[in-house]
Amino acid sequence: MEITFYKYQGTGNDFVVIDNRDLSFPRENTKLVNFLCDRRFGIGADGLMLLNPSDTYDFTMVYYNSDGTESSMCGNGGRCLVAFAHKLEIFKNETTFDAVDGLHYASYQDGITNLQMIDVDTVEVYKTHCFLNTGSPHHVQLVENIGNYNVKNNGSEIRYGAPYFKEGTNVNFVESIGEGAFRVRTYERGVEDETLACGTGVTAVAIAMFEQKQTTNTKIPLKVEGGELEVSFTPTKNGYKDVFLKGPATFVFKGTINYNE
Ligand SMILES: N[C@H](CCC[C@H](N)C(=O)O)C(=O)O
Predict the structure, then answer these.
(1) What is the Å distance from ligand 1's center to 75 Cα?
(2) Helical segments of the chain, H only
(3) Which of 54, 216, 227, 260 is deepest in the core (most CB within 10 A)?
């Protein structure tokens, strides 16, 4: 089977993207997705997105982690898929698409996608960390000297440990870098490693920092290993709405790859 794909990256979180408006991609084929994401035997990526058709909206987003399993919402993936839909001329400036966690509005201009995320109505605050869902589950923990922090070992321990166990969570380590800005490093579930950025992760960090009064800003710059992202939101009496994740989404290359089962 020959597959045509597009490679995208959003602040270093990278994806294989497939135009699947003809629904020809074998959606249940975990082995195929894992092969396509393999950095040695395949194309290499943190995840894979299908751009599927929609009867009502501009398109439907299907997201897989690099382990081949379909997963919850991917913020950087969503930003890249919007850039891809723009490249396919599916929309001009603004779009609305359907994803696993519901509808998303987004705007795209000059390589920057501004993606609306789901509202957040619950932030669990503990002594050591926060837990919240921004379309994917996120554990958020303040650390010191984040540049030397062992994200993979500590992240994996939390991801597989109590109370998350097999279903797991994504794990975000964060340090304040002054004036309401934060540096974030993330261990991603389903990649089972640190990624250079995590969109739903920085969204969770921004809201958790506001919730824990680490900042009073509602538009927060976040430094990630792969660049800079911005999260904005409106606090309400029962959570957070108008949540947006903004940053670069870049087309890297187009290609074809052969796959023999
Ligand atoms: N690994 C996440 C999904 C992708 C999240 C991340 N790539 C993002 O940009 O939000 C999970 O299984 O919950």
Answers:
(1) 7
(2) 30-37, 75-87, 151-160, 199-211
(3) 227
